[in-house]
Specification:
The protein is of the alpha+beta class. The protein contains 5 helices and 15 strands. Helix 2 packs antiparallel against helix 3 and helix 4 runs antiparallel to helix 5.
């Protein structure tokens, strides 16, 4: 960020404090918004936008909790997809995932089972005992976006799958602790890498968290691995943290047929949890307060 004693951005040759330095709080806030948009493509939200984004995020987290309760052995992910679509429609919302991207995503949610890292497409295959999978739910409500995801364990799962699921959750929660005004984006990745190392798991680097709210995907990009991003968090920023953790190798490969589904290269299990966060004046607020997993209740 430019300092008061640095040269003014206008090119006058004067120090910023003697030239275009803001004289009021509103001017200072607008300057910050403009700087972040121009330099980082980050949309700092105002209070009205924040309230509308909160509603979209809250709807996502409520629907996510409901659909996770349905996910039992014998249920198909196609049934879960239809349930989410119906629940959104009841609230006047639509899926943000449906027909997103190129080729257009063909479903309302992502259901990523076992070795699938992300962007799994719901189908007619029944869930079975021992499966783990991520349910990723995103919506558009009154023109604003919400986004979140969490894991489901179908019945009893083996120790390795349990380990990668727990790693994904606790790495997310440790990362959230770093988010506050003036903290750097790279601190998020550092925290996730630290937890992954403890669990002897790897962090997927090919996909990142992202700004959200006005658009489905905005700046900043939020890497989950160790990185050198010096972007500072400021109040009004809204973004996701969604670490994807692998039991084995960190690399994934995209399905050559549907061009969406990403699987681990060694076909070992992967897990992911996701929250949308608002940077506040004193720290951050989780906008998608889905129910904690059983292993984290204590």
């Amino acid at each position: 960020m430019i300092g008061r004693n640095d040269l003014c951005f206008c090119g006058s040759g004067k120090k910023w404090k003697k030239c275009h330095y803001p004289q009021t709080i509103s001017e200072e806030n607008q300057l910050l918004k403009n700087t972040y948009l121009q330099k980082y493509n980050i949309l700092i939200k105002d209070s009205e936008q924040i309230e509308k984004i909160k509603k979209a995020c809250m709807l996502c987290s409520k629907v996510l909790d409901l659909v996770c309760q349905m996910a039992k052995a014998g249920t198909t992910t196609k049934e879960l997809d239809l349930f989410v679509k119906t629940e959104f429609e009841k609230q006047g919302a639509i899926s943000a995932a449906y027909h997103y991207g190129s080729p257009p995503f063909p479903a309302n949610i992502c259901t990523s089972l076992n070795e699938v890292i992300c962007h799994g497409i719901p189908d007619e295959t029944p869930l079975k005992e021992g499966d783990i999978f991520n349910l990723d739910v995103a919506c558009i409500l009154d023109g604003y976006f919400g986004d979140c995801s969490k894991m489901v364990c179908v019945g009893k799962v083996d120790a390795n799958k349990k380990r990668v699921v727990e790693c994904a959750y606790f790495s997310l929660m440790e990362a959230i602790k770093t988010v506050q005004p003036k903290s750097k984006i790279h601190e998020i990745g550092d925290a996730i890498e630290s937890v992954a190392k403890e669990y002897k798991c790897s962090v997927v680097y090919q996909f990142v968290g992202h700004g959200v709210g006005i658009q489905f995907h905005e700046g900043p990009e939020v890497p989950h691995h160790a990185n050198k991003s010096i972007i500072e968090c400021v109040p009004g920023m809204i973004f996701t943290i969604e670490p994807m953790i692998n039991l084995g190798k960190k690399e994934g490969e995209i399905d050559p047929i549907n061009h969406w589904t990403v699987r681990t290269v060694d076909r070992l299990a992967s897990a992911q949890y996701e929250h949308t966060l608002l940077v506040t004046d004193t720290g951050c607020e989780i906008l998608t307060p889905w129910e904690k997993p059983d292993f984290a209740q204590n």
